[in-house]
Design a protein that fits this description.
This protein is α+β, with helices and mostly antiparallel strands. 34% of the residues lie in helices and 20% in strands. Helix 1 runs parallel beside helix 3 (67-77). The chain is flat.
Length: 143
C-alpha cells in the first residue's frame, strides 16, 4: 500500500468520452465553416469580371469578425451583391442551420441590395427528401 500524502483519495480520470466527442464535433463544424469561407473567396476570385454567381452560405460564414468580415467586404467592394434570400433553418434537415442564398455579379459595388425570405408552406414544419422545395413556393420572391 502506498503511503498517504494528504491527497484526496478520489482518482483522477480523463474527460468522459461524450465530452471528447462533443469537442471533436465542434472542431469539425469549425473546419467546415472555414472551408466554406475559403470556397466563397475562391469563387469570387475565379469569377471573371461581369460573371454571375449564386451561392448558399451559412450565416456563420458571413457574420462576425476576422475572415468573415473580409468575405463581407469582398462581396460589397468587388461584387455587385444584389440579392440575399434567407432560407428556412430546416432547408438542410435534420441539421438546423441558418443559411442565405446570395446572388452577385463580379465587377462594381452594389447600388442596392434586395432582401427576401423563403418561407415554409403552411402546415409544413420542414423540408426533407420527400418534402422538397417546389418552384411554385418561390413565386412570392419572384414577383
Amino acid at each position: 500500500m502506498l503511503p498517504s500524502r494528504g491527497l484526496d483519495s478520489t482518482p483522477v480520470t480523463s474527460p468522459p468520452r461524450l465530452a471528447i466527442l462533443a469537442i471533436l464535433a465542434i472542431l469539425a463544424i469549425l473546419a467546415i465553416l472555414a472551408i466554406l469561407a475559403i470556397l466563397a473567396i475562391l469563387v469570387i476570385q475565379l469569377l471573371k469580371p461581369g460573371g454571375r454567381c449564386a451561392i448558399v452560405l451559412p450565416d456563420a460564414c458571413i457574420t462576425g469578425d476576422g475572415y468573415k468580415e473580409r468575405i463581407r467586404e469582398k462581396l460589397l467592394t468587388d461584387c455587385n451583391l444584389h440579392t440575399i434570400i434567407r432560407l428556412p433553418q430546416s432547408i438542410f434537415h435534420p441539421a438546423t442551420v441558418s443559411t442565405n442564398l446570395l446572388f452577385f455579379q463580379k465587377g462594381t459595388p452594389p447600388k442596392e441590395i434586395w432582401y427576401g425570405e423563403h418561407r415554409l408552406p403552411e402546415r409544413q414544419k420542414s423540408y426533407s427528401k420527400t418534402k422538397v422545395i417546389k418552384f411554385d413556393e418561390s413565386a412570392p420572391l419572384i414577383e
